[in-house]
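Q: Convert this sequence to structure tokens.
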Amino acid sequence: MARYTGPVCRLCRREGMKLYLKGARCEGPKCPIVKRQPAKNFPPGQHGQRRTRRPSEFGLQLREKQKVRRFYGVMESQFHKHFVEAERRGGVTGDNLLQILESRLDNVVYRMGFADSRRQARQLVRHGHFTVNGRKTNIPSFLVKPGDVVAVRTQSRGREYFTDYSEVLNTRRAPDWMTVDSNTLSGRVLNLPARDQIEVPAFNEALVVEHYSR
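A:
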């Protein structure tokens, strides 16, 4: 399955909620979910206005899975692998799944404030601008562990993007489960986040578990 390359605002409209795929733009008045009148906030496409039937149980589970997957920008095959890993771990599978998604390197770079969106963070990681514990890592799906240090590569710190970003980092608040040093352009993962430490929209991850457990 190829990665979606169309207008990402259509994904928010399809799910009927903000997925924060465009960074700061999603917080402003230009967000289509805010800009469009409530009566016109229907799913995109030719038949968007006709989708008024009550969704089935499967439909509810599918939509919830798509919300979480699109929020983190993960393709279906990889999302399913994360679910299998979450199921293998002990405890609540839904909480484990969100914890795994949060510990992805692209998400950690975004949470630390080095990018305005997860898509931008993924691109920065792909281009090799970050290291994990001093080693260059360009795999967005790399799972960080407690104690890992994520930093901008020495060769990349002279780029205009990162020289301007040191001031931006001072205006952003990192989650409680990590620390960020704007002077060294680095951050440390203190621990894997608990469910109440994960700031996400009102997801019902139990429906995602039910979807894959059919």
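The mean pLDDT is 84.
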